[in-house]
């Protein structure tokens, strides 16, 4: 038998159904120091089964993570087999078979010109990696004065120091003022519902945003900016912020003009969530670097990826320089095997097409079921990535008082009714962007979509009865 091959195929997993004892709260090392979180014991498809006997319909895939649903045996078996065969080899010394196959899968027949992939363990690491990649790229090009990053307001790129500096979700930065990388500034996001003027066309709005970016590049100094970072479709902060037509074409043009790298963060909106593998495929542009996470491992592995365009790779190639960066757990074999298994299922079962189709059903259901709701100001998104924004007054778009945390209350109410949606938070001014996010697994059925929407409607109407 060839070295590294399994002696016998593994066909069954050890029975884990006995491990239903709920861990004590003190076992958790997380932020929930002051509250007890529900404990999911198992999951199947779109359902989570809690230790208290409740069943929860997962209407947001956790945080837009579970794209093929829970409890997938194919993925579990593949991961199990890989663990028996080889779980880990140091990434500085070896490229494991699953890491190689996963990169191949991502780059195969790739029409976008990405040449290299860096596999890491989270979206935050992917952002950090991208920041360092851009910096070394400038260094290799003989442009050491490029030190500055530009990102957008109402953005989230991760919780580690560098990624937090790029992020502008104020709630998640509270208590950390003064920390982080200092050379970062921010421009307005394409948040039409709140910020497009009433006398402005979509085209004029996009032009105004591009002008603001141009002004910011010039203010900093076009020779000093390394990279512009943006979520193609904004996720967690203000809820499914979709760009106006032409916005990203304008951004691309500007970055090219000044030699500034364009990084699109698709950790939340990528891997089919918006109906195409990359959300940027709907924008008619290609970034220099794109990061993916969440749905990449589909919840079966902690994995994210940085895809790097030939244009950037060539800079390193020319100087025969490796990227001076690494993590012990990058390209982890079982994580790669799990992600590959998830992605093969997505491709085989045409789940990205399904995300697009179910997204249309979700959009239509939300619009019809929430039509009577007085606090629903906007419904937006793409594919199975939809947000509902709440306002106190539809005419003025006046928000509820921030201390009411209306969107979060709605989310909790929905959870009590047996459905999970993802909560939104305050934004640049602490108010606008009060929302919930709905992002079910792509395997969701029309009936389940209708059920999720009807529960959302019930919760919103009951909230309105109290607060409006
Ligand atoms: N970028 C975006 C767009 C995200 O939504 C997130 C997570 N919400 C991150 C980066 C950070 O990913 P992680 O939590 O895996 O570190």
UniProtKB/TrEMBL annotation:
<feature type="compositionally biased region" description="Polar residues">
    <location>
        <begin position="9"/>
        <end position="23"/>
    </location>
</feature>
<dbReference type="GO" id="GO:0008483">
    <property type="term" value="F:transaminase activity"/>
</dbReference>
<dbReference type="Pfam" id="PF00202">
    <property type="entry name" value="Aminotran_3"/>
</dbReference>
<dbReference type="InterPro" id="IPR049704">
    <property type="entry name" value="Aminotrans_3_PPA_site"/>
</dbReference>
<dbReference type="InterPro" id="IPR015421">
    <property type="entry name" value="PyrdxlP-dep_Trfase_major"/>
</dbReference>
<keyword id="KW-0663">Pyridoxal phosphate</keyword>
<feature type="region of interest" description="Disordered">
    <location>
        <begin position="1"/>
        <end position="23"/>
    </location>
</feature>
<dbReference type="InterPro" id="IPR005814">
    <property type="entry name" value="Aminotrans_3"/>
</dbReference>
<dbReference type="InterPro" id="IPR015424">
    <property type="entry name" value="PyrdxlP-dep_Trfase"/>
</dbReference>
<protein>
    <recommendedName>
        <fullName>Aminotransferase</fullName>
    </recommendedName>
</protein>
<dbReference type="InterPro" id="IPR015422">
    <property type="entry name" value="PyrdxlP-dep_Trfase_small"/>
</dbReference>
<comment type="similarity">
    <text>Belongs to the class-III pyridoxal-phosphate-dependent aminotransferase family.</text>
</comment>
<dbReference type="GO" id="GO:0030170">
    <property type="term" value="F:pyridoxal phosphate binding"/>
</dbReference>
<dbReference type="GO" id="GO:0005829">
    <property type="term" value="C:cytosol"/>
</dbReference>
């Amino acid at each position: 038998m060839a070295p590294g091959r399994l002696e016998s195929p593994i066909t069954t997993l050890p029975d884990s159904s006995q491990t239903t004892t709920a861990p004590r709260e003190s076992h958790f090392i997380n932020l929930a120091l002051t509250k007890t979180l529900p404990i999911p014991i198992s999951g199947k498809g779109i359902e989570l089964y809690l230790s208290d006997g409740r069943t929860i319909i997962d209407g947001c895939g956790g945080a837009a993570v579970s794209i093929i649903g829970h409890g997938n045996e194919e993925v579990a078996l593949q991961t199990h087999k890989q663990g028996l065969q080889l779980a880990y080899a140091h990434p500085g010394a070896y490229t494991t078979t699953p890491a190689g196959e996963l990169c191949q899968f991502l780059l195969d027949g790739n029409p976008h010109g990405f040449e290299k992939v860096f596999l890491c363990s989270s979206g935050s690491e992917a952002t950090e990696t991208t920041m360092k990649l851009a910096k070394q790229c400038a260094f290799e090009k003989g442009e050491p004065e490029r030190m500055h990053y530009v990102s957008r307001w109402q953005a989230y790129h991760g919780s580690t120091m560098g990624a937090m500096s790029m992020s502008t979700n104020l709630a998640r930065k509270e208590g950390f003022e003064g920390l982080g990388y200092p050379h970062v500034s921010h421009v307005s996001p394409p948040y039409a519902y709140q910020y497009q003027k009433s006398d402005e066309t979509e085209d004029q709005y996009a032009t105004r945003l591009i002008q603001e970016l141009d002004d910011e590049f010039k203010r900093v100094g076009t020779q000093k900016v390394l990279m512009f970072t943006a979520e193609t479709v904004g996720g967690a902060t203000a809820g499914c912020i979709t760009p106006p037509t032409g916005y990203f074409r304008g951004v691309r043009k500007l970055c090219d003009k000044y030699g500034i790298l364009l990084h699109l963060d698709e950790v939340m909106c990528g891997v089919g969530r918006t109906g195409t593998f990359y959300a940027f495929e709907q924008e008619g542009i290609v970034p220099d670097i794109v990061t993916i996470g969440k749905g990449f491992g589909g919840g079966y592995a902690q994995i994210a990826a940085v895809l790097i365009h030939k244009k950037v790779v060539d800079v390193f190639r020319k100087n025969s320089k490796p990227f001076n960066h690494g993590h012990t757990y990058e390209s982890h074999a079982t994580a790669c095997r799990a992600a590959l298994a998830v992605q093969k299922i997505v491709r085989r079962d045409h789940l990205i097409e399904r995300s697009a189709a179910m997204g249309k059903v979700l959009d239509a259901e939300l619009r019809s079921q929430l039509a009577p709701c007085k606090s629903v100001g906007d419904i937006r998104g793409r594919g199975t990535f939809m947000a509902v924004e709440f306002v106190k007054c539809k005419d003025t778009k006046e928000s509820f008082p921030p201390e009411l945390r209306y969107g979060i209350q709605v989310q909790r109410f929905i959870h009590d009714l047996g459905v999970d949606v993802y909560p939104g938070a305050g934004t640049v001014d602490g108010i606008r962007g009060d929302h919930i996010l709905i992002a079910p697994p792509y395997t969701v059925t029309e009936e389940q979509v209708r059920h999720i929407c009807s529960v959302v409607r019930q919760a919103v109407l009951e909230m309105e009865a109290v607060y409006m």
